[in-house]
Amino acid sequence: MSARSVLGVIDPLRYDVIQLGISLEGAWLTGENVLDALEKGQIEHLDMAALLPDPSWPGIQTIHKSKHGYILEKLADLDVIFPVLHGTYGEDGTLQGLLDMAGVAYVGAGVIGSSVGMDKGVFQSVMQANNIPVVETMLVLRKELSANMEAIINAAENMAPYPLFTKPANLGSSVGVSKCQNRADLLEGIMDAARYDRRILIQRGVNAREIEVSVLGNDDPLASVPGEIIPSREYYSYEAKYLDGKSELLIPAPIPEDISRQAQQLAISAFKAIDCQGMARVDFLLDRDNGELYLNELNTIPGFTSI
């Protein structure tokens, strides 16, 4: 969805766009209508592609089989790559490191900003070190669960009352996130998050409005007016984001001016704290009960959808 949105607004009279796709098996592909082919699962006609981590081999190479093995053929030079990849390998600094080694310019954050923004546990620590308010959080390792589950649950219950949220440290789009109303829910939520990552976060639940701020720039970034997500479900889950299409985005968010300014200032502070570049969407929780604003996440490659 994000890639289609980006392609829809790029001016074809100004830019020659080469689509590069990555299959579920990790193969890089290029050719005619890569996006359509990937969506339909019809990739047989596409060419294998490679971006070599060597500036002496610039541009995109296509890979062709021959009776002697494989042949690399240069497809095109590249001015810039626009990564539209969410989650592991695309948003966590891995791809960005490859592009740096290849000497190719790209849109968005570099290795440090991408990796810290992706890892919610490290991100929380950086926010706390910079006096940016975040909700109470504890981090546990998957290997600790079998021997210490009782102690982990007790520690979580001592940290904050229910509801609690569990989530994988390194995943996006609310995949693996659970809202836990009791001990049984918490056990189930921890185990579900552990399916996706070896590091699991347990966070205090907040009766919150969901506020977003976009940040654009590099060393002197600018923040947008805040928007507010009105989720179609109890919280902004994967289903509410991508499946039922009933969530709403209000711009500007109907919040007091001082809260709006605070969100903008905190968004810029977080952006600078992780050495982000290019763009980000910074998500906040605005506590309905006491008016406190908490920074929740920073997305270095936000979803490019209508909401």
Q: What would your notes on this structure say?
A:
The protein is α+β, with helices and mostly antiparallel strands and 307 residues long. The protein has 3 domains: 2-97, 3-Layer(aba) Sandwich (Rossmann fold), CATH 3.40.50; 116-133 and 206-299, 2-Layer Sandwich (D-amino Acid Aminotransferase, Chain A, domain 1), CATH 3.30.470.20; 137-204, Dna Ligase, domain 1. 30% of the residues lie in helices and 26% in strands. The protein has 9 helices and 15 strands. The protein has helices spanning 2-9, 34-40, 94-102, 111-118, 120-129, 145-159, 183-194, 238-242, 257-273; strands at residues 20-22, 28-30, 47-50, 60-66, 69-76, 137-141, 164-168, 178-180, 199-204, 208-217, 222-223, 227-230, 248-250, 278-287, 293-299. The strands form 3 sheets. Strands 10, 11, 12, 13, 14 and 15 form a 6-stranded antiparallel β-sheet that branches. Strands 1-2-3-4-5 form a 5-stranded antiparallel β-sheet, with helices on one face. Strand 4 (60-66) and strand 5 form a beta hairpin. Helix 6 crosses helix 7 (183-194). The longest helix has 17 residues, at 257-273. The chain is globular and about 65 Å long.
